[in-house]
Amino acid sequence: MSEPGAASVLVVDDLPEQREIYRAMLRHAGMRVLEAHNGETAVDLARAHVPAVVLLDVRLPDIDGFEVMRRLRAEPRTRQIPVLLLTATSVPEDRLYGFAELLTKPVPPRDALAAVRRHLSS
Fold it and tell me: Cα–Cα distance between 97 and 109 in angstroms, integer?
């Protein structure tokens, strides 16, 4: 259960079961969770709520995680949000510019939580 004033984390993944895993883990750790199943919704939620951290899958049904990142970095309100990229495929190093961290799927829940906490405290 999240505490009043708890940090919010935006979880972006098109797979409901993945979002459920991250939601349960983050809520258990006392964080507020926002969820998006595609890139457009992720950008809209980030603009509206300015989460403390974004967990972002690279493969999404509309725009990919790189385009989501480009849009977040283009706006002053969302520019500084740490974005953790989730991917099961290799990513060329030049595509990682601006991401706070790369997490390779499958990501054990404790590792994802540790990464979120690292970026909450920085």
Answer: 24
